Every structure is written in structure tokens, then in C-alpha cells.
Amino acid sequence: GESVGLHLPTLSVQEGDNSIINCAYSNSASDYFIWYKQESGKGPQFIIDIRSNMDKRQGQRVTVLLNKTVKHLSLQIAATQPGDSAVYFCAEIPNQAGTALIFGKGTTLSVSS
Amino acid sequence: GAVVSQHPSRVICKSGTSVKIECRSLDFQATTMFWYRQFPKQSLMLMATSNEGSKATYEQGVEKDKFLINHASLTLSTLTVTSAHPEDSSFYICSCYREPYGYTFGSGTRLTVV
After folding, report:
1. What is the pLDDT of residues A97-106, one digit of tens each?
2. Distance, first Cα to last Cα, chain A
3. How far is residue B92's CA from residue A80's CA, in Å, rounded to a whole number?
4. Cα distance from A29 to chain B (closest Cα, Å)?
């Protein structure tokens, strides 16, 4: 079936740096995308979402960029902090709202101080 | 905000026994509930989609007789792992969907079968 993939499995940054986590999705019909943060032994935590009619959305210290032409999604974290260390997943909804999220493979972000 | 409670957080069981995991939406009624399984250093894999009062829809490769899902109300879904074996050891996560909250995840259940 359709799946969402990620370019890099791990990303190591220094505290204060900006982090960029990438995601490639395969279903051009997907209308909605979400970035999640998962800490060890916990469930996914919502970070930010974006709909396909947008190409950028900003939150607090985070920005999501969507390039539908190349089916690419990215999460930018400004001034990365040690507390940002976690696994980050992008997820897509290939069907209508309320159907299952399909998750990518995940990127482990490691922030050193 | 929307809160989903998942219980237990950790469980160890003997091979051949059954384990039940509960997923509750605490302050909202979920339109749909989802069950995921996550192996170490891997992504969340969808197991099944569950709607209240109807049979769950299982993903390809997920044995419905082994992973029994009961969705008795709009706030409770249970996943029972029957005749558990060591290869069923995993992290099980539920998700509840309702507008305008979107998707809310439980905190997960770590199942270890010995």
C-alpha cells in the first residue's frame, strides 16, 4: 500500500541550532499531513499539521513546509533544545478526514548541549 | 483538550495467555478508534480501524482472531491479544478521532510475552 518515507534515520545537532527533518510521501492524493514527536515509551505527540492547499505553516519554534510538486514535507525546528530530542514522524491521510493516519519511518533527533 | 487514556502502560504475560488493553477517550466521544503496533526503532504500523458497534477493519496481515477488538461504546475500545507469544511483544498504541480534536493518541502499552 501507500507509505510515507523519510530521508534520514538520525539527525544530530547542537543545542541552539536549527533542525530540519525531511519526509517524502508517495500518495499525491493525500490532503492532510501531521508531524508527531515521540519520546521513548510514550505515544505520539502532535506538533503541527498542514493541509494540501498550503505550502507553509508556522507554529511556535516549528515550521512545516509542503512541496506537492515533489511530494516532500519538512519540519524545521528553530533553536533546537535538548528537550526536542525524540523520534519525529510525519503522517499522512491518504483518504478523507477520520480515516487512518499512515506513518513514515521516523527520524531520531539527538540534541547535544 | 482531548485526552485518551490507555491501560495498562506495561504488562508482562506468559506465553499462551491472553492480554486485554483498554483505550478510553476521557472527555470526548470518539468517532473512530485506531490500533497501532510499534516494534523497537520502527514506525507505527496500523493494525485495525474500529467504529462503535461494528466489526473492526483489520489491515492486511493482521490476524483478527488473534487480535480481538471490541468497540462497545464511543469512549472505549479494547484490544485483546489472544494466546500471546514472544513475537507479539511490542508497543501497542491506540488513537481516537473526533472533530475538532483530530487524532489523539494514547500513551501506549508495552507488552512483553515471556
Report:
1. 789 999 998 9
2. 40
3. 29
4. 19
